[in-house]
Structures are given as C-alpha cells and as structure tokens.
Design brief:
Number of strands: 12
CATH architecture of the largest domain: 2-Layer Sandwich
Radius of gyration: 19 Å
CATH topology of the largest domain: Dihydrodipicolinate Reductase, domain 2
CATH superfamily of the largest domain: Dihydrodipicolinate Reductase, domain 2
Structural class: alpha/beta
Number of helices: 10
Strand order of the largest sheet: 3-2-1-4-5-7-6
Length: 289
C-alpha cells in the first residue's frame, strides 16, 4: 500500500526508514513545511517524492495514498483531521491530539484494522498502558495507578515540548479507558543528563493488601512479550515489587537506532507502533503493488 508522511522531523524521518524495510507499505510522499529540513533531504536521496506544502500536497492528488501518517503536532492534526476525513484516508495520528480510534497494538490492533482514523495515544501511553492493564487483570481491586515517564531531554523536540499538557491528559485518559482503574495520573520528566538516558517508565499501583506477586509477574511478562513483537527494544527493568501498599513496575525502551539515536526510545516506540498498525491495515485491506 502507498503511504504519505506528514511531518519531516525526527519521527517522520524514522518512519521513512522503517517503511523502507516493509513488505506491505511503501512511501510515496514525504511532506512538511520546511524544504530545507534534514528529513526532506534524506527522502530526496532515497528517491522519494517530497513537498514543503504539507497537507496541500495530499489534497492535490489524494488517490495516490492509501494511508497517511500524521507526525506533526496536536494543533496541526486538529487542522489535518477533517481534511483527511473528507478525503476518506486511513490516518495514523502520532500526535497526542486525542481524536480518532485509540490504538495500542498489543491490546487492540485487530479492532483498529478497519478504522479510518487511529490515534496512538503518546509514547508514555504506549509504554505504560499495557502494563497498567496487566496489573489490573491481576489485581482488579486496585483503584489508583500513576505512571512516570522519563526521557532524555535531547529526544524531546519542539512538538513534544509544546504538547506536554495534551500528553498528560491523553496518557491519563488512556490508562483509565484501557485498564478500568478508577483514578490515574501521568507525569513526564525531561532528563538533561549527559550522556542521555534511555526511556524509563515507572508504573505505580496502590494496593490495600499484598497482591499475588506470582500472578502479577505472569500477567506483566505476557504483556511484555506482546509488545516486544513490534518494539524489540522494550524490556522489563524492575520486576513487580510490592512495598508499603504500593506495587511498582519499571520498564525501559531502547530504540532501534534507525534514524534516531538508541536512547530515543520514546520516539522509536511510536514509530514501531505506527508501523504495526499500518502493516496490519495493509494486510487486511490490500497488498503492496
């Protein structure tokens, strides 16, 4: 299937390389607003059509593209969404705009395969919501979950920094929706450490009694395997640990190092999730020419 990428920054550029390895999708357009961006130059060298006219380039010839990745910002996606809906495109939204059908591949990719607008929550949501659900399956009595995501400051571009409020709200809402817990909170830390840290995610769940840790670990490990099927650098950093009425789980995401440095696991988990969704959509709705 033919795809277009909106957004020529780090995420769009990383997607471009991952698409190049796919058996199911191929990039027909790489579009942004800056004709001099590094991503545009890389796409040109790869022989891919580029544009600095953003969504206008898709509007001129919409039939060329089956799938559109929106790797811009929440504000930009709010503008793009009605346009792409009118064009009847399958849209994979990689911004925290909180529109469309929410998808976390490990949890509901089959339900999303026929949807026209798919939202990937946030990087923290992709990394923590499955673990929150695993905890709730083992400990349904838990009423509060808090997640703290720490990423390297160098991996947080202008889009991430301008969308922090949307990030917090969208991640929290995703935890509530998928896990069924009554209360939730999401926190994002930008760590300026040198050398840059990998993405770390800490999931806390309040417990009134000591849980069955064997059951919790089984549920968490089963979920980890599902995520690793499309995010190879995702792994457990701290086994489920219970102390002082609180269960703690920590995971880490190391990027594949395609376009982005390996410490930028927060961006890599988004591009990996986006590729999982796009390839599933392509497998079900057509095949690459």
């Amino acid at each position: 299937m033919s795809v277009a990428i909106l957004g020529t920054g780090n995420i769009g550029s990383d997607l471009l390389i991952k698409i190049g390895r796919s058996r199911y999708v191929e990039c027909a357009l790489f579009a942004g607003r800056s004709k001099d961006s590094k991503g545009i130059e890389m796409a040109r060298q790869m022989g891919i059509e580029t544009s600095h006219e953003s969504i206008a380039a898709i509007e001129r010839n919409p039939d060329r593209y089956d799938i559109v990745f929106d790797a811009t910002s929440a504000d930009s996606h709010a503008i793009h969404s009605p346009v792409l809906k009118k064009l009847d495109k399958c849209v994979i939204d990689m911004t925290p705009a909180h529109t469309g059908w929410t998808c976390i591949p490990a949890l509901n990719i089959s339900e999303c395969a026929d949807k026209k607008e798919i939202n990937l929550v946030t990087c923290g949501g992709q990394a923590t919501i499955p673990i929150a659900l695993a905890i709730m399956r083992a400990c349904p009595e838990s009423e509060y979950i808090e997640v703290v995501t720490s990423i390297a400051s160098k991996s947080a571009g202008p889009g991430t920094r301008s969308n922090i409020d949307e990030y917090v709200e969208t991640t929290r809402d995703g935890i509530l929706s998928f896990s069924g817990v009554k209360k939730a909170k999401a926190i994002l830390n930008l760590n300026p450490a040198v050398p840059p840290i990998n993405m770390h995610n800490t999931i806390y769940a309040e417990m009134t009694a000591e849980p069955d840790l064997k059951r919790v670990r089984e549920k968490v490990h089963d979920m980890i395997k599902k995520i690793q099927a499309y995010v190879p650098g995702y792994h457990l950093k701290l086994e489920p640990l219970f102390e002082v009425d609180r269960l703690t789980v920590i995971n880490e995401v190391v990027g594949l190092g395609d376009y982005l440095p390996k410490y930028a696991g927060n961006l890599d988990i988004m591009t990996c999730a986006a590729m999982a969704v796009a390839e599933e959509y392509a497998r079900r709705n057509g095949r690459r020419d």
